[in-house]
Please model this.
Amino acid sequence: MTRVVSVGAGQWRDLLWWLALIGFGLALTAWAVHSGAGLGTASAPFLGRYRFQLSPSTLLAPAVAIAILALQAGGWFERTRWGLVCAASYLAGLAWALSLVLVDGEAGLTRPLLDPDNYLSQVGAIHDAPLHYLRHFNQDSAAHSVAARGHPPGPVLLLWALQRIGLRNELDLALLITAVGTLTIPLVLSAVRGVCGETPARRYAVVLILAPYAIWVAVSTDVFSAVLGAAMVAAGVRASDRRRTGLRAGAWALLSGALLGLASLFSYSAPWLGLSVVCLYFARRRPFLNVGTGLGALLPVLVADGLGFAWLSGLSVARADYATRVEPYRPALWWSVISMVALLLASGPVLFASLRKMRNTPGWPFLVGAGCAVAFSILAGLARGGVEHAWLAFFPWLTVSAVAPNRQAGPDIPAPTVLAAVGAGAAIVIEAVLATL
Model:
C-alpha cells in the first residue's frame, strides 16, 4: 500500500511541476507576442492559427480517451496477449489521432496538405521525370515549396509515387499518412519490450496511444521519417538481442542501417536516432554490429547520390536557405524558450516524469538520440517554429523513462495513467483552439 501511495504521489508531483512549467512558458510566450518579438507565426508556440472550434465531433476525442483509459484501468493491457496489445494499441492510437483532427471535419485532415508551403504543392514540379527532379533538387532549391526546401526529396517523391498509383484524393492521402504515422506505436512498444521488459512496455502503451503529439501525426508528412526511425531502432534492438548471433544479428543490423539511410532521405535530422542504436550496441556489448548498421545506412544515401542527389550538398543548401529565410526574422533566444514550451505541450506531463527518472531505465539509449537531437536543435538556434512537426521522430522516445522504476533495479511501477489522461486533455484543448498546419 505504501508503494502504491508513493507512486501516486509521484505522478501528482510530476503533474504539478509540468503545470508550473507550462504556465510559466505560456506566460513568456504571450509576453513575447505582445512585446512585438516578431515570432513569425500567429499561433506561438505552434505553427497555424488560433480559433475556437466546438462541434458535435468535438466529443469524439474525449470518448476515445475515456475508452482507452477504461481499458487501462481494467488491466486489459496487462493481461492480454502481447500481439493483441500491439494491434489494439495501433488501432486505438489511430482512432485517437483521427478523433482529434476531426474537430474541424474533413478540413482538419486536408488543410495541411493543401497549404501552398507544404510538400504536396511541389509534386507538380516532378511531372513524369522523377530522376530529373532528383538530379536537380539541390540546384532548384529556390523554386521549391517551403517544406521541401528544408528536407531531402523523399517526402515529395513519395507523394508523387502515391499519386501515380491513383491516390489523388487529399482525404484518402491524409488518412493514409495518419495510418502510416500511427505505426510508430507498435514499433516503439516492440523496442521498449526488447530492452526494458514486457511489463514496462505494456504500461507504456497508454502513454503512446494518448500522446498529445498525435495532433500532428494526423496532419504531417514528417511521420514517414518518424516511422522509418522507429523501425530502425526496433531492428537494432532485435540485432543486439543476446539470443541472436552471427548472420542473423548481422542481417538485422544491416536492415537497421538501411532504414536509417531511408529515413535520412526524408529528414536531415533523422540520423540523430542512429545514435540511439550506437549506444544500444555498446550497452549490450555488441559494438561490432555498428559496422553492419553503418554500412546499411550508407546504401540508400549512396544510391541516391548515384541517381544525382548528394545528401551533404542538400544539407548545406537547406542550411543556407534557413539562414536567409528564417534566422533573420525569428529571434533565436525567444524561440529557444518557446520550442521548449511546444515540447512540453506536445509530449504532455509524462515528459517531466521521464526526464526525472531517465537514469533508472535500461532504455537510456533511446533517450540519447532523441534528447541529443532536441538539444542540438535548440542550442544551435535551429528550433524556430514548427518543432511539433520536426520532432515527431523523437517524441515517442523521450517519454520512455516514465515507466521506469523509481530507483535502479526497483520494483515495476504502475502505468502513469494520471499523466497520460492529463496529456490527452491538453491535446483536446489544443485542438479546440488551434487550426494546425
The longest strand covers residues 48-50. Residues 2-367+376-436 form one domain.
